[in-house]
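Q: My labmate handed me this sequence with no annotations at all. I'd like to see what the chain might look like in three dimensions before we decide whether it's worth expressing. Could you predict it?
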Amino acid sequence: MAHFLYRLGRRSARYPWRVLGAWLAVLLLAGAGYLVAGGNLATTFSIPGTATDRVTSQLEYQFPDLAGMNASVVFTTDDGQPFTDTQRQEIVAELDTIESIDGVAQVISPWFTGSERDKQAQALERGTDQLVEAEAELDQAQAQLDEALSELRAEQRALNRQISRADDPDAFADRQAQLDQTAAALQAQQKTLDQGKQSITQGKQEIALGTQLLEYSAGITSISEDRATGLATILFDQSMTDLPQEVKNDVAQALEQIDIDGVTVDYSVELASDVSGLIGPGEVAGLMVAAAVLLITLTSLLATILPLISSLIGVGIGVAGSMAFSGLVDMTSVTPALGVMLGLAVGIDYALFIINRHRRQYHVGMDLHESIGLANGTAGNAVVFAGSTVIVALLALNLTGIPFLGVMGSVGAVCVAVAVVVAITMIPALLSLIGPRVFGRKARTSIGAEERREKPVRPMPAWQAVLSIVIPVAALLILAIPAASMRLGLPDGSAQPQDSTAYRTYATVAEEFGAGQNGPLVVVARTPQPVPEDDALMFQADIAELLMAQDDVVAAAPIAVNDSRYYFVFQVIPRDGPASESTEQLVNDLRAMSPLPGAVQFDVAGQATGNIDISSKLSDALPVYLAVVVGLTLILLTIVFRSLLVPLIAGAGFILSFLAAMGAVVAVFQWGWLGAVFGVHQPGPVLNFVPIIVLGVLFGLAMDYQLFIGSGMREAHAHGAPARLAVAAGVRGGRKVVIAAAVIMTSVFAGFAFSHLVLVRPIGFGLAIGVLIDAFVVRLVLMPAVMHVAGNAAWWLPGWLDRLLPNVDIEGTALEREHPLPGLHEAT
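A: Here is what I predict for the chain of 828 residues:
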């Protein structure tokens, strides 16, 4: 590989414009592919096979009209007074205009729910009055019938006495027949009256049940008590993942253009989610810090620009090329952001490694193209291996069985792969173009001078090694403590920026209608046999009563029944929002109730249940993912370092870094520590896929730093240096580039910690703090100290295993021997 990369570097340096032209052509093709074939980016997350996904699929099959996405719109009077008739008419007119937009199925105005409830209440009241009147008429008819029956019985007794005294009873046959006929008619009338009484009793029961259901649904409102806030609902004819972004944009634009005197309009996150801008002020600030670090490290403006140019082109190709497939593969809005984040970070770092190696060689007098080729064959070889560890970690996300996570990993892996290929082709080409200007003006005057001899290295004292183990381990364990209380979920509207329409909508709904109306639950009751039509209302009332008996339920209402009456759907309003612990407990309690008596199955869906199911699935996948990724990478490290202990030290150090990083994430995003700094105004559960994403990416990057420092230790030890001296030599040889790379990567990730995309912030923060801890605490302090204590045991490898393992020269040592540096004196 080293020789191939050497030849590739020299060829790229010889034909720089061809290389740059080819990459620009690829960038244009990727951009064109995205414009032609790119699809929608989803702002929701689902996992096939979960309980929520199963219930949602059943709902889509049974009730297609309920399958579309819905969004909320809040109208508020500026003066806090009730809506005027004029304002109300204008709002309804504007909503009618929204309903005419293609893709909108229905718009429910704020006054619809109250109007329907009033109609139902009036209907129940009229029904009650009618039943009272009917019952009075029946009572009157019954009294008349009873009087007629009494007269009939008196006549019958009189006739019986006559017959008993008569010599010829048959003479009274006609009279008896008349009485019998009258009795039969009266019995028929009694039967009719009994049927009427039964109907009235049934009507009373239905009215009582209807009143009960109306009371249970009283908590579902769309007009505030002060009549100054109205909540409208927009129903779309497609689901969140299928609805074209253009439709959401059209609706959002129409809402933005509403201009009603004295009325403010806000809309929910479903319409407010904007993923069009992947780079915001925070990301730009991170890039500026990275550029400053590069300038300090390289002391040349042109040399500083090269990694920025190459990484931006690589990101453009990787992200645009991946998003070109978003029309074929479900891709979340976080996916391209992760690609940008990784592409920028590793792209800058990998370019820095090659540029730094080339500068060292070129400065001592090596020919320009020879230096570029050798840097590509040595540092570039390490870059390929380092990038491979990150790619393996990202591609392994597909093993979790979680589709959206696998897509995120694949896109991230593509972006890293592109960054690697760009680094080993474009960087040599750019280095060739700028030639000596890779140095600052002062450094250019000493090109070709003999490299200054470095001071001899010395191993650290034993006491320092012990303290360098105890103090970092204790500090990282303390920092990891919050991770023990980590709750996973998806952020709701309360996590949006406070100046956003999505946050204002969430906050207004919570204040005026209750936080639960920001995330209602859908409860499905499935019966083994169809419920008789006469019993359907009773069944609905019984289920609603059961739901209302649960803690933290403020309202429950039946919303749909299928034609066969075995599938009953209810809307349940919890007391708190969808991300709250109480709502999570409510979902678990409702699910635990199934099956109900009579083999009635109870299913729950909604935003809160989706969060619970996804978080549970991710938690189950985390140990498997960790075992696979760590196992594969430790095997690679064993091959590279030809040691059993070094990979174990690297893996154990990473676990400490990961736990400490997650502890920091929990402290900030769940506990709210330093919330004002990181824009966390409403602490809540940690984004449910943050742990597994941070685990995969951070592990790959941690192994990069392990490689760049550990390989120097191994090289020194292989050249005969004692084990402890080799540790010191490896740290000195790699710390400068690792520190610069870590600061750059931390800066890029930290920029995303302040992203305008809420879902990206915890990922950026977790990676930034993780890289900072792993590079500066674990790789530069803890790992060398453990290696120092281990001594020669750190490099022990059984002979039989040594013979089986292939010889991987990641530093290109053989290539270096073939292309020695002119006048270079090795440090002693």
